[in-house]
Amino acid sequence: MSDDENAVRFGILGCANISIKLCKAINKAPNSKLHAIASRSVEKAESFATEHNLPKTVKIYGNYESLLEDDEVDAVYIPLPTGLHVTWAVKAAERRKHVLLEKPAAMSVAELDRILEACEAHGMQFMDGTMWMHHPRTAKMKEALSDAQRFGQLKWIHSCLTYNPGPEFLKSSIRVKADLDGLGALGDCGWYCIRAILWAVDYELPKSVLAFPGAILNEEGVIISCASSMHWEDGRSATFHCSFLSHITFDLTVLGTKGCLRLHDFPLPFEDNLGYATFLESSELDYAKIQPGMWCPKPNEHVVETQFSQEVCMVMEFADLVQKVKRCEMKPQKTWPVFSRKTQLVLDAVKDSIHRGYQPVQIVS
Questions:
Q1: Which of 50, 183, 198, 293 is most buried, by the most CB atoms less than 10 A from its CB?
Q2: Where do the Gfo/Idh/MocA-like oxidoreductase N-terminal domain residues begin and end (predicted)?
Q3: In sequence order, what are the beta bridge partners of 256?
Q4: Which domain holds residue 20?
Q5: Is the link from the previous residue into 104 a cis peptide, with omega within 30 of 0?
Q6: How far apart are the first and last CA of the chain?
Q7: Are residues 200 and 288 in the same domain?
Q8: pLDDT, position 278
């Protein structure tokens, strides 16, 4: 935790499990400190603080409004159910708090636009909580994909994020409740898949999206398993699968004419401070010399080491932007809101395609 009086002072709205990770990240980030935490009752907030050994200096609030009224809070992290994001993110921006919002950012792009408009109107920085975007490995992978000699022309992408939490989760988790996290697996897992695909194509939106037949919805109409394809005018394509019904898988494959990038832990590295990626380059494969049984050469394994975990890196980057805005060195950066909005647009299109009976949906930005 920073002792610097200029450190960004964070308030957290809610005691969700992900809040534990963010509390630790904020305390480790040298430019941030945890100032307050709020829950729907002061007892729950106090219990959370005690259980997770939060510093005694952290203020405890029994409702979200009180935290937002704290003038010492510079920024808020909001891990509330997605259905509550638009309400509390807008209120936070109106009370001049910078907004770090857990993913999925909103139930729809219309809701997200309300959040982004409030942040822009009040000069507040916005960022969603897609942590893997901030791991140094991600920048190194982008360098590899941008190297035409190594990777060539991008042709196809596939991402898959699934896990099977069991029947109790499917019955009672907020992630399967229409009024809380009504996007289900598409929001919880598909957000990562879509973001990874857009990241690989430099955030160029696809021309169209087509959900695959066979999506599974629960009794409340919440998606618990689905898959989709995306298509670009130049012939590039992508597919993804997200589910609460399959064995845990965190895969990303980006295929080019000369190289192939593969990850088996793209949203959450196997080790906090290390990121692994395999990269197969054309120089490794001389087709004229291929012998039987040697069609698949061993790819290079690239390792990126970092001092901090990806959640700490995210907090540091967000806090740095907040500090610059506070010092009037810059206006809120628009890059992160754009990434969020494009991800939400594609997510909306997948959901729309499912509800239209698996018809293609054109992307209109």
A1: 183
A2: 8-127
A3: 154
A4: 8-130
A5: yes
A6: 40
A7: yes
A8: 73
pLDDT, tens digit, 9 for 90 and up, residues 28-74: 999 999 999 999 999 999 999 999 999 999 999 999 999 999 999 99
Same domain, 113 and 140: no
DSSP assignments along 228-289, one per residue: EEEE-TTS-EEEEEEESSS--EEEEEEEESSEEEEESSTTS-SBTTEEEEEEEEGGG--GGG
* pLDDT, tens only, 129-174: 999 999 999 998 999 999 998 899 999 999 999 999 999 999 999 9
DSSP 8-state code for residue 206: P
Q: Residue 1's pLDDT is what?
A: 44
Residue at a domain's end among 130, 163, 179: 130
Q: Which of 92, 137, 125, 186 is nearest to 330 (CA)?
A: 125
Identity of the amino acid at 136: P
**How many domains are there within the chain?**
2
User: Do residues 161 and 249 touch, judged by C-beta distance below 8 A?
Assistant: yes
